[in-house]
Amino acid sequence: MASVSFSALFLSVILQTALLCSIGSSQTTGFTSIDCGSDSVSNYIDENGIQWLSDSNLMSEGTSVVLSDTNISRVVSTMRLFNGSQSKYCYNLSNSAVRTDDFLLVRATIFPGVNPPYSPRNPDGYFRFTMIIDADQWWDVKVRSGDDTRLTYDAYVRAKRSHIDVCFARITPNGDAPFISALELRPLPNTLTSTTIMNLTDRFLVCLEHANVGVPQSGPSYVRFPDDTLDRYWTSYKAPDSNLSSTQETIKMSTDSEKLPEKILQNSLTGSPGLTLSWTELEADVAHYVQFYFSEVDPFVNASGMRLFNIFQSGELVTFDGPVDVFATVGANAAFSCPTIVTSNAAGAMEFTFTPLANSTFPAFLAAFDLFQLRGSNSLTPTSISE
Ligand SMILES: *[C@@H]1O[C@H](CO)[C@@H](O)[C@H](O)[C@H]1NC(C)=O
Ligand SMILES: *[C@@H]1O[C@H](CO)[C@@H](O)[C@H](O)[C@H]1NC(C)=O
Ligand SMILES: *[C@@H]1O[C@H](CO)[C@@H](O)[C@H](O)[C@H]1NC(C)=O
Ligand SMILES: *[C@@H]1O[C@H](CO)[C@@H](O)[C@H](O)[C@H]1NC(C)=O
Ligand SMILES: *[C@@H]1O[C@H](CO)[C@@H](O)[C@H](O)[C@H]1NC(C)=O
Ligand SMILES: *[C@@H]1O[C@H](CO)[C@@H](O)[C@H](O)[C@H]1NC(C)=O
Ligand SMILES: *[C@@H]1O[C@H](CO)[C@@H](O)[C@H](O)[C@H]1NC(C)=O
Question: Where the protein is mainly located, per its record (predicted)?
């Protein structure tokens, strides 16, 4: 059985100065993009057509630091360092699209640079500080000093009012001073399953990964805006051509409420004949929301039951409404998704197996998935949802 392990917890985007795509200056309504620590005249449009503003009018605390690193993208070349004595430092983020009960993606970008502004307290060389959204604990940041990977932390939240407070704090009074390179807001349409889950559970979602699986070797290392209108960062998992099912045909997206970029659904990883997806280093015994994305792009699969598989999580059937049959459900070259909520085990691991039925002539497959942790103060009984 083909097996793919995922342990990367955050979307780490290797710095690239190369242009992903070149588009005109088409600033998208509702995007707020703050370049922290940059000077007040530094408002600019980047290579993706996104307009950046300095945080100088939003934040009077902290120190603006210019990194000495060369050959890094402009947005991470400055940071704001909160080395004062306040217990926390908050940005009040807003734009014309933020209203009470709206859903938003909140993104923090953290990049210590090769020559960070100070040395971490802990001799293990990691900076540690914490992030808070409104009153909710978001995530404890742990980032290695000298790492030239920029870390992006995404959360999906529901606005409690017409602005969102994003705060940074030391973990202990004596702990590392927080620092931040960029803060972003992106509106999320309420057609997404994730927004329904936030409503049902009264939780917010910490995004651990948007994964584009089954990408050809020549494919991009990630996909984001403008291919993804919501500006999610999809990390590529490349595979040899022999393990892929690919098409150049148009994918019918009218069946997709999740607003996926079409190119993500044009390539799938195929199993042999099953597929195993496993994660380690998750928080133990915590509810996670996972959504799998599919599109039947193999022209030889042209009847119901030809690619038929069940999904199990730790031996338990996730697809209890019946096996996945993408062709039977939406036809060829059309988007299909399958959400589920499961709990990580006591060791912080989670594993899914995709097992074809005995009469399935084609192997299991997968085009993409999202992995989120549900966070919030209320207790929640894990449930499974199948579509
Ligand atoms: C690719 O397919 C081969 C043979 O079917 C299998 O052994 C291998 O594990 C697959 N690789 C991936 C990355 O799925
Ligand atoms: C700068 O980065 C680009 C893209 O990563 C790379 O191709 C180039 O060699 C780098 N230049 C220097 C001077 O390091
Ligand atoms: C904060 O850091 C800046 C830049 O390194 C430094 O100039 C300043 O003295 C520091 N402030 C405190 C309170 O440590
Ligand atoms: C935050 O920003 C919003 C919108 O600009 C404003 O209405 C609100 O008063 C601000 N809140 C604080 C605490 O500054
Ligand atoms: C979420 O709940 C709010 C208020 O309770 C409601 O207005 C909204 O339509 C709901 N959205 C979704 C996507 O269920
Ligand atoms: C399905 O594909 C096979 C193999 O290409 C072909 O022989 C058959 O005619 C197709 N059936 C339909 C209903 O299109
Ligand atoms: C394949 O097997 C399943 C269960 O064993 C059965 O429900 C289904 O009808 C079969 N499909 C075909 C096309 O024979």
Answer: membrane
Ranges of residues in the chain whose predicted pLDDT is under 50: 1, 5-26, 378-387
- Give the per-residue pLDDT at 196: 95
In DSSP notation, 74-125 reads: GGGSEEEE--SS-S-EEEEE--TT--TT-EEEEEEEE---SS-SS--SSTT-
Is the CB of 163 within 6 Å of ligand 4? yes
In this structure, are residues 144 and 195 in contact, taking their beta carbons and an 8 Å threshold? no
- Structure token digits, residue 90: 């908050």
For the domain 203-374, what is the CATH code?
Answer: 2.60.120.430
Same fold, 12-188 and 203-374: yes
Taking CA atoms only, the protein residue closest to ligand 4 atom 11 is 92
Report the nearest atom of ligand 6 relative to the CA of 303.
Answer: 13
Q: Which ligand is nearest to the CA of 357?
A: 7
- Would the CB of 160 count as within 6 Å of ligand 4? no
Q: Which ligand is nearest to the CA of 64?
A: 3
Ligand 6 pocket: which of 302, 307, 361 to mutate (most atoms <8 Å of CB)? Answer: 302
pLDDT at 254: 85
Global pTM exceeds 0.85: yes
Domain boundaries, the chain: 12-188, 203-374
CA distances, 137 to each of 126, 186, 260, 309, 327 (Å): 20, 20, 29, 38, 42
Cis peptide before 323 (omega within 30 of 0): no
The predicted pLDDT at position 11 comes to 40
The answer, yes or no, to whether any atom of ligand 2 lies below 6 A from the CB of 71, is: yes
Give CA 111 to chain center in angstroms.
17
Q: Whose CA is nearest to atom 6 of ligand 3?
A: 63
Q: What is the CATH number of domain 12-188?
A: 2.60.120.430
Instruction: Kindly list the distances between the CA atom of residue 287 and the CA atoms of 184, 284, 345, 349, in Å, as whole numbers in the listed order.
Output: 26, 9, 10, 12
Q: Whose CA is nearest to atom 1 of ligand 2?
A: 71
Largest CA distance in the chain: 66
Residue nearest to atom 14 of ligand 3 (CA): 83
Contact by Cβ (8 Å): 340, 267: no
